[in-house]
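Why does residue order matter? Because the sequence determines the fold. Keep that principle in mind as you read this record.
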Amino acid sequence: MSLAAESRPAGGAAIGEVLVATGIGLGLTVILLALVWLHRTRRSTVLTTIGNRLGSATGVPAWVALPTVLTTISLLVALLGMLWDIALHIGVGRDEGPLANPAHFLILFGLFGVFAGGILACAMPLDEKPGPSAIHFLRGWDVPVGGVILTAAGFYALLGFPLDDVWHRMFGQDVTLWGPTHLMLIGGAGLSIIGLLLLEQEGHGGLSTDDGDRKVGQTARFVRQASAMGGLLLGLSVFQGEYDFDVPQFRLVLEPLMIAGAAGVALVAARLFMGRGGALAAVAFFLVIRGGIALIVGFGFDEITPSFPLYLGSAIIVELLALAVGLFRRPLVFGAVAGLLIGTLGHATEAGWTQFTQTLEWNSDILVEGTLMAIVGGVAGGLLGALLASGLRRRLPRPAIARTVLVGSLVALAAGVANGLMATVPDDVQATFGIEDVETDPRTADVTVELDPADFVDDPAWVQITAWQGQGLVVTQLERTGEGTYRTTEPVPLHGTWKTLLRIHDGRTLTAVPIYLPADEAIGEDELPAEDGMTRSAIPEVEILQRELKDATGSLWTISNLVVLACTLALIGAIAWGVGRYSRRASAVEPYADAPADSAAEGTTEGTTQDATSQGSTARGAAGR
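Structure:
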């Protein structure tokens, strides 16, 4: 094991592996472009044939059916690969190389499939305008806006793969899900779902087949849309991955913010877009997929089993709210109220769920701040979900209102994230350890801890020992035996490649004390042995959890992070533009039959209240044509 650890690079991959990975990417790109060229020049009909067969079963054109199926499968493959990859890094540590990690192949092929789905959606329409919001690309070539968004999101996610190696070469290994290039992979894949939703709407020509509140006229379409909204919930939930594995590197209050934000976006959008049962259907899809992947990773691959949020309480709340009050036709108001309930009642159900699924469950330490963070996430997410559903239903508010809500919600979420990332590290805290060996080969021990000062913690979120990256994971909450004194309830490993540390989180304080760290020649670090009676000072957690990280300060680090942030904001801006373009172009061609009577008060694009009966007749006539 020691030799294996020494052979694992602490920076970028070996040049040979980089060349192989580059060759794989170029080969896939050549195949994709060849298919596009053959299709556009009408030398081959294979894409159309496959698309028509898939479309005949789903009722959408070939240029919607094939990319949708390809992207959906690819996203599921990538999600499996991401969760498997997280489990591997937590249990084993660094890779011997990117090609030595089998999960990387699933991520690579999955993300390329998302990008390919977007390219095919743009390339497949021939001699037709794909939807009312199509973009003129070249002479005789119009592309659907959903295809453009899907391509952009897929490219952004795929770009994170080579940039991750560049990042490691510059700054070392950042063993965290929230590394900037890791966020590119996750964010691009998750947001690509919005491109799929737009693509299906364009595939129906912008015409409504709805009947009042019930958005879906056919079971098959309801299932597809539930899968898409559930997929959006899956994508947004990956950001919580470190909490799902009980190895968070940030304050615990960040988890309620992310869960409520994801629920607000996906469940509010699902209910407003799909109608009755939409939020519940999206959660059902989420639970089936995440539950299945947890079984595959934990039992099929024999790795660490991830937990996941429940979301069921929030879904029930959203559904009951829509039935109980007349806010459904005022989507922004509905989104805000639903978000508030998600951040309170829904938050309470998630707190109860953590008691059964997480070792580091939510407790009284984060009761007030965690609830406030959940409210911020729920309301901001609910407003964003309402905007998304309004865009898909071609009822966006006036541009000034839509932009204000979008920017305001993003700023609120960013402020919540910034608050969750803010932590303090004491400079005068020490821990004295008592080590009582249980086994000597391999070495495991019971540990007692005495903090100095003894009153350092009051009502902590956790005082625990984490041991990871030694072919497994051990997270054990310590039992309090007196003021400032604690003991383990199970032996912890102190050998091989295990990294074992005491972790303390109380309010804004987030700190750690190393107990045992292995020698690591790749980064020039000697072994830090565990000795009975030793006293060590508390230090920032990142110095232990991300031991391989280097040069995480200075102008280059700041500039690199700002570049990733700018690219992320550009993708969000492109998605907002695409949803807005579809909503306004499609509503100009054919307004919804069930347009709200108070559309003028809500600031819809028409700007005037139209007679609902007249609109319904127009829509039915258009559908008949």
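The chain has a mean pLDDT of 89.
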